[in-house]
Amino acid sequence: MSDAPLTPADCLTASAIAADVMAGTRSALEVAEACLAITAAREPEVQAFEYLDPALVRAQARAVDAAPKGPLAGVTVAVKDVIATKDMPTGQNSPRYAGCQTGVDAACVDTLRQAGAIMLGKAVTTEFAATNRGGKTRNPLDPRRTPGGSSSGSAAAVAAGMASIGLGTQTGGSTIRPASFNGIWGWKPTWNTISREGLKLYSLTCDTLGLYARDVADFDLLADVFDLDDAPRPDTLRGLRIGLCRTPVWDRTEPSMRDAMEQAAMILRAEGAEVITLDLPEIFNGLKDAHSVILGREGRTAFLNEVRNTPGIHDEFVALAENRRQITPAEARAAYGLADACRAALDDVMRGVDVIMTPSACGEAPMGLELTGDASMNSLWTVLQVPVVSAPGLLGPAGMPLGISFVTRRYTDRTALAVAGMAGEAFSRPLAAVA
Amino acid sequence: MSDAPLTPADCLTASAIAADVMAGTRSALEVAEACLAITAAREPEVQAFEYLDPALVRAQARAVDAAPKGPLAGVTVAVKDVIATKDMPTGQNSPRYAGCQTGVDAACVDTLRQAGAIMLGKAVTTEFAATNRGGKTRNPLDPRRTPGGSSSGSAAAVAAGMASIGLGTQTGGSTIRPASFNGIWGWKPTWNTISREGLKLYSLTCDTLGLYARDVADFDLLADVFDLDDAPRPDTLRGLRIGLCRTPVWDRTEPSMRDAMEQAAMILRAEGAEVITLDLPEIFNGLKDAHSVILGREGRTAFLNEVRNTPGIHDEFVALAENRRQITPAEARAAYGLADACRAALDDVMRGVDVIMTPSACGEAPMGLELTGDASMNSLWTVLQVPVVSAPGLLGPAGMPLGISFVTRRYTDRTALAVAGMAGEAFSRPLAAVA
Fold this sequence. Notes:
Chain A has 14 helices and eleven strands. Chain A has 435 residues and is of the alpha/beta class. In chain A, helix 7 packs antiparallel against helix 14 (413-428) and helix 9 packs across helix 12. At the A-B interface, helix 4, helix 9, helix 10 and helix 12 of A face helix 4, helix 9, helix 10 and helix 12 of B.
């Protein structure tokens, strides 16, 4: 081990690890040992992992140390357990898949490994990443509270400092909501800019790989590895036009989030940004329902084989496969049509602003582990297929984090990352500085 | 073995097998032995399979015979080798995946097995089902000609009588074109009404599971097993309004297909149908390019990990991953927008007709095995995500088959199946009857 101690608070970001391992000042094995030590200390309380084999982690680290260094050399990754891994089981929190070996890596894992990343373990998910029924994972900031879901374990593992990067998925609000609840960075890239191959399927239209980190700079590194499109990266908040979007589901927010949005607007104005109210056109009023119809129509297809082959499967999957809501072809076509129209309309709306600012969750992480919270703030942006970056830094009355989402047009993830990065930095400064 | 000999021409349809096995007049093992015998006779010339283990086929058949009978009991299925199977390797015609064991079945295979079907073997595909470079498979009707692709082996196996059902995929014209070239029934269901989980990913927007059979009634059986939406099923051609659609790519058709379309119209009119010319609105003129841009944008995502991890991979995949066409975000958004608009426009167009009739291929199967033919006639309907059923029955000047496609609105596959079924029956009657 080198002299510099590894702690969650400082050097365990992906950027720091990769720089050190590349420079030879730290080995991947040292990083792995540090992550394993933190995990050993925190995991009994947090319960982020479904599967973690220290010997396998060390073997991966040794292989990284023996190979030419990639841009993510030594970076540890918590992999949501609906994402296939060739050397660890992929259980999907379903009795049918307990211990299931897929033989191949998901495309995203394949790409991360090629860049030198180390898969730390399989992180807890709700069943098939498709329910609000909580898993065993506790919020590292307050173990009485949910970490959110369905990417519960990945978010908690990153928040607790066990892994530098978390892989999640989002179909409703499964990446961005846990980012908010755990006080970390969350990124839902533009739909289908990172391959979904090897992720459990629920909705082809909405499912998106999601990412967690404790430093927004880590996302820049990932954007390079995954070859995201180039886009303008503003280097100052001054003069930026930021559209504060309350969305048609604003009534679902709690006072804590309304206060946080006001506070965020005040801070960004103090930084010289122009924060304007952005009202979505009327057509967006139907989008939450369209998202729900699309999930119903696509979930019917996705879970047919699971329902036929899993005796005792939870009734919510049976209801999907049986189309118990009786979604008609006409309703499905109309829902797709509305989502398509809103995507085009958003492109128009966004011509007036550089970025949209909107809540990452309804409020602070709720008490209890039974349910993972409300995805209302996220599902619109998911079905719109736009990039969303959730910035931490603000706190609610219970002392729990409140994330603010930054949204841009499809394929301009790098713009959202740049603006969210500067905003998050401003949010994290002592309040007195802006009061 | 029962006294009735099994031959491709009569009793090896899925419907006949399932009825016999259900009634107890034939065992699944007898069916399997018959299919293996036909395969042994035909495979040396046709080369439809990448992997076929007779012992595994017999073991599946014995298990089917020992279990309660499902609706597909004993039905043999050729599985395209980009579709995951838990008990056979999934090689994708890629050196990287030679012998690869996925551990889990694709969702469609899972559902078929649950209904009693037997997976006969893994059928030849072009690499990743994403190229026009031919595989080893020969057209069973003329071994000098391509069977089409990328679902080459599945189509040839069904045409040669080795399997009753073939599983293919379609991203451009990979299911419907081979159906035409091999003189069998082909069905590309409405996008995402049968799960794509476990199929190699190229384009989320276009990839669709495709199906082959030698009797359209087999598709009705499959529609039930996969729980496709109900839709009107006309029981006579008389009075049906059929829109003859030449599409904006009509100039790619050969004289043989133009003649076949005229002949088809004449036959259907003789049956009492009203065949009218259907011109697509001007907006459809850009759809072929939009399909190409969408494949470029989505292929870039899909093949990134393969390119990074497969030394010597064919340059066409490198070109995709590198976005060598330099498709911009604005072009991608515009292509999606145009495809969305055409989907909505087609719903309007189709209010005037019961079904669209259009070519399944440019002409007869070309000579040679290097290339699998031209997908121009299919890609429009693929990106429109509508159901397409290709009916055999007509022949070209070289004596090779020419398929006619029947297209309806999304989720009305059963209408397309019913109309195509009656049309195919009419096409197959001696010409003198209508001349």
